[in-house]
Amino acid sequence: MPIPSEEVPVAFNPCRVGNHYNPRKNYLFYIGVGNGPEIVRYRLRFCRAHALLVQEQLSEFEVNPDDGTLSGGDTATSHCFSCGEPVGHGNAQVFVTGYPPDEERKDYWLRIHSDCTLPDPLSDQWEVKSA
């Protein structure tokens, strides 16, 4: 049965940013936010266009797989990713692993204040938290 012209097909698991047309595979990002022994983990799905925006937002926090350095250098982790203010010890750390389709995974590490939340679209505001 053909799809009526006013309906636009979407991916089975739509992009986190919205229920829009996505004919390709989703990009997956796994987020872990931890402060001490407590870590909250969740997964986010994005279409290619929105995933590229997320990758751009995280670019200075990308971990080099060969030597573990950050692309933005040591200064990348000296400020809160959310509010931009300096962070000290005891604040939350954020670990992000991105899985672009048909590419190698990308890892990111950043810091935020314990009372700050990750900005959209990386927050877990609409996601179910899982261990």
Polypeptide structure, described:
The chain has 131 residues and is mainly β. It has a domain at 27-112. The chain is 8% helix and 25% strand. The protein has 1 helix and 4 strands. It has a 4-stranded antiparallel sheet. The longest helix has 11 residues, at 48-58. The protein is globular, with a radius of gyration of 17 Å. Mean pLDDT is 82; it is low at 126-131.
First-last Cα distance: 41 Å
Largest sheet: 4 strands, antiparallel
Shape: globular
Give unreliable regions as ranges: 126-131
Tell me how many strands there are: 4
Sheet with most strands: strand arrangement: 2-1-3-4
Beta-strand proportion: 25-35%
Helices and strands: which structural class? Answer: mainly beta
Task: Determine the fraction of residues in helical runs and give it as a percent range.
Answer: under 10%
The number of distinct helices, counting runs of at least 4 residues, comes to 1
The sequence of SSEs as H and E is: EEHEE
* CA-based gyration radius: 17 Å
Average residue pLDDT = 82
Task: Based on the model shown, name its key terms.
131 residues; mainly beta; four-stranded antiparallel β-sheet; 1 helix; 8% helix
Provide a quick synopsis of the model.
With 131 residues, the protein is mostly beta strands. The chain contains 1 helix and 4 strands; from the N terminus they run E-E-H-E-E. Mean pLDDT is 82; it is low at 126-131.
